[in-house]
Amino acid sequence: MRLPDALVPLREPKFAWFYAARVTSTAGSTMAPIALAFAVLDLTGSASGLGLVLAARTLPMVLFLLVGGVVSDRFSRSAVVRTSNLLSALTQGTVAYLVISGHAELWMLVALEAANGTVSAFTMPAMEGIVPQIAPRSHLQQANALLSFSRAGLTVVGPTVAALLVAGVGSGWALAFDAVSWLAAALLLTRVSLPARTDSRDASMLRDLREGWSVFTGNTWLWVVVAGFGVMNAIHAGAWFTLGPALA
């Protein structure tokens, strides 16, 4: 595929603004784990303390992910994403302030990261659901490719920049960058207007949750793959985000 063909989705203003928001928030998100890891280690000097903070963020995100999907299906996805971005900016900004000011305590970071993980459970489903609404069907493949390419690139660049900031000015400032990125993403998303919802949902949210869970558990290949990747990600995350920083 030629480069001009790959960039075709960016000619659509809605997708261009959305793409800018995604790149901005992803840049901060890829920096956050490194910054948070060294912030906790500077505070506690304990790998177990770091594991506690990371678990406090991850568990709510997993537990509420299905709820987040139901909410994004029933309400305006752009409103859900903007609200969650602002809440992410608030939680990470508070963590950054506490770390920079020297007032941070372990229980504060646990509580704030639990809130941040809960918000993320609503962000991801809504984000993924927006793409088909703003990218023409004929350009959907290129749109997803652009998002994947930027995410993969930032996965390499983000931690590197975070490490430089941690070494140069401190972990709190790297966390502050993450907070600012969420705020900037929320502002960029104000330029993205979605078409009106045409579907009507008379069923309760609880019924939607039950139906979603039954679909998930009813497809053996689906829950087996999810479970397998869950175990693999747990192993990798333990090595990358807990053991690695602790040894460093």
Coarse morphology: globular
Number of helical runs? 10
Question: Low-confidence stretches at least 5 residues in length (pLDDT < 50)?
Answer: none
Structural class: mainly alpha
Give the beta-strand count: 0
State which percent range the strand residues make up. under 5%
Give the C-alpha Rg.
19 Å
Distance between the amino and carboxyl termini? 42 Å
Largest sheet: none
SSE order, one letter for each helix or strand: HHHHHHHHHH
> What is the averaged pLDDT score?
86
Helix content: over 70%
Overview of this protein structure:
The protein is mostly helical and 248 residues long. It contains 10 helices and no strands. It has helices at 3-6, 13-44, 47-63, 65-74, 77-101, 106-134, 140-168, 171-189, 205-218, 220-247.
